[in-house]
Design brief:
about 70 residues
């Protein structure tokens, strides 16, 4: 696991602290990892939705779906 040191805003820090205080995250690092996982999941869903829209428009997608999914 890699450790990153990144600046965050006061608002972001307060939000992260609220997640820890409420028990939704074990600690600040856990809260940030959860946020990144959520972002990645939302991105994947958006990509799938975009692909569905392109298919409805008649665009043809080429490639092995298993290899395409592996990129995420």
């Amino acid at each position: 696991m890699t450790t990153l040191s990144i600046p965050i805003t006061t608002k972001q820090e307060k939000f992260i602290a609220s997640l820890v205080d409420s028990g939704k995250a074990a600690n600040m690092a856990h809260a940030v990892r959860q946020a990144l996982d959520f972002y990645l999941e939302e991105k994947l869903v958006a990509d799938v939705m975009e692909s569905e829209m392109e298919m409805r428009q008649g665009k043809i997608l080429y490639g092995d779906p298993r290899k395409l999914i592996g990129k995420f």
